[in-house]
Design brief:
The chain has 201 residues and is of the alpha+beta class. It is built from 6 helices and 15 strands. A hairpin with a 2-residue loop joins strand 13 and strand 14. The longest helix has 13 residues. The termini are far apart.
C-alpha cells in the first residue's frame, strides 16, 4: 500500500516505523491518523486509560509515544479524554442543553469532529486518539430554509452566503458558533475554522 504524506511516499507496512517517527515529529496530525485508521486499516492498541500505545497492521505492532489525556471543560465540569469519555457522554445525555457547550469545548480542546455522511457526530479524534462519544449529535445549520451539514456542506455554504441578507448572515454566524465552528471577523471578511480547515465568507 502506498501512502503519500508530507512530500514523501511510504510503503505500508515496510515503512511503518519511518512513518510513525515522522508523524510523532509532527505531533500526530489528527487528519493523517484518521486516514490511516479508516482507509488503510491501521488499528489501535490502548492501555487501561484508553490511550493509544501501539498501532498494528497485518499483525505487526508498532510502538508510539504515549499522548497525554486532554482536559475538556463543559459548563465548569472537566473531563479527561479519552479516559472519561463515557462519563462526559453521560453528563451531556442527562441534559440536552449541554450538547452545544460540549461541541464548543471539544473544538477548543483541539478535537477533530468526524461526522457520518448524514452529518451525525459520533466520533472525535485528536492525534492518535479516536474516541467514540457514545451519543449521536447532528451537526447542521438552517439558513433561509436550507440545511447545511457541517463540515460536508461548508464549501457550498461559502458560495451561497453571498446571496444572504445581513439578518441571515448574523443567524448563520450564531448557528456556526453554537456547533463549535470558530468564527472570526477581520475587516469585511469573516473567517470560519472547522477541523483545522479555514473558509472565508
Amino acid at each position: 500500500l502506498r501512502f503519500k504524506w508530507n512530500n514523501r511516499v511510504y510503503l505500508i507496512p515496510r515503512d511503518m516505523k519511518a512513518l510513525i517517527a515522522q508523524l510523532e515529529r509532527k505531533g500526530m496530525p489528527s487528519d493523517v491518523m484518521h486516514i490511516l485508521y479508516t482507509r488503510f486499516g491501521v488499528l489501535q492498541v490502548r492501555n487501561s486509560a484508553g490511550i493509544v500505545i501501539m498501532l498494528t497492521f497485518n499483525g505487526e505492532r508498532y510502538r508510539v509515544k504515549v499522548e497525554k489525556q486532554t482536559a475538556v471543560t463543559i459548563l465548569g465540569k472537566t473531563f479527561q479524554l479519552p479516559r472519561e469519555a463515557e462519563k462526559m457522554s453521560a453528563f451531556v445525555k442527562a441534559d440536552k442543553s449541554r450538547t452545544e457547550p460540549m461541541l464548543q469545548a471539544l473544538q477548543r480542546a483541539g478535537f477533530m469532529f468526524i461526522p457520518d455522511s448524514s452529518g451525525n457526530l459520533q466520533t472525535i479524534q485528536k492525534g492518535a486518539q479516536m474516541i467514540k462519544l457514545g451519543l449521536r449529535v447532528r451537526i447542521a445549520i438552517n439558513v433561509v430554509g436550507t440545511v447545511y451539514r457541517v463540515p460536508f456542506d461548508l464549501p457550498r455554504l461559502v458560495k451561497d452566503v453571498r446571496s444572504f441578507g445581513r439578518p441571515h448572515i448574523n443567524s448563520l454566524l450564531d448557528q456556526l458558533g453554537r456547533v463549535g465552528v470558530k468564527v472570526t471577523k477581520q475587516g469585511s471578511k469573516i473567517k470560519i475554522l472547522f477541523n483545522s480547515i479555514k473558509y472565508i465568507l
